[in-house]
Amino acid sequence: MTSDEVNRLAVTRFLNYQAEGRAVTLNVPNVDGGLVITASVDYRTHTGYGVVRGTGRDTSSDGLIRWTATTVLVHPMADPPDVVPASPPESGWYSRPLLTSGMTLDSALAIVLDLGSDRPDNAALLPQNGATWVGHEQVRGHRTDIMNGPRAESGAEVPGGDTSTGTSGTVRYWIGSDGTMYRVEAGIASAPEPVVIDFDTQAHVPVPPLPGATPTP
What we know:
There is one protein chain. By secondary structure, the protein is mostly beta strands. The chain has a single domain, classed as outer membrane lipoprotein receptor (LolB), chain A (Clam). It has helices spanning 3-18, 104-114, 125-128, and strands spanning 21-28, 33-42, 47-56, 63-67, 71-76, 94-97, 132-139, 142-148, 151-152, 155-156, 167-175, 181-188, 195-199, 214-215. It has a twelve-stranded mixed sheet with strand order 7-8-11-12-13-1-2-3-4-5-6-14, covered by helices on one side. Strand 1 (21-28) and strand 2 (33-42) form a beta hairpin. The longest helix is centred in the first third of the chain and has 16 residues, at 3-18. It is globular and about 50 Å long. Residues 152-157 and 212-217 have low confidence and may be disordered.
């Protein structure tokens, strides 16, 4: 990797934090089809809020979703909207702990939150830990460099070195000339294919608090 490429990989999560929030689309595969989550993520509070739609036979999870690093709240809906409502429903929410391994959806949600950091990563350590340049690609009109993130003995890492998200294999980044993150692909042990996270796929909306969440018994 060139010094410019290393520096852009080192600051890409910090730029997400500086932006406060990003609009994302997550494609989460599973054996029944998969889930598509259209969401906004607040990288200052590390919370996300979005719409879940199943593909193939997997429609049981359709509805709204909000998550933090420790908790997932879901609001089931038979016909969820295309975008999240600015004012969330005040009732009908169910809460459960976020599982850091063994559940593809939760691993994907945790990875998304890990893509923001309040400081740049250590550029000197990235190539030492296996970060590499892969190639070029256009992503929604943006010219990006494709880079593999560093690796650890227990699996792939986000640049900062977090291995608690259930990743398995390489985490790959599509990064613009200014360090902006446009796409991330991450292998998850419980998923048949990598999770794909696309940024700026729709307008970002603030992540509002959700009153009236009902804990799952």
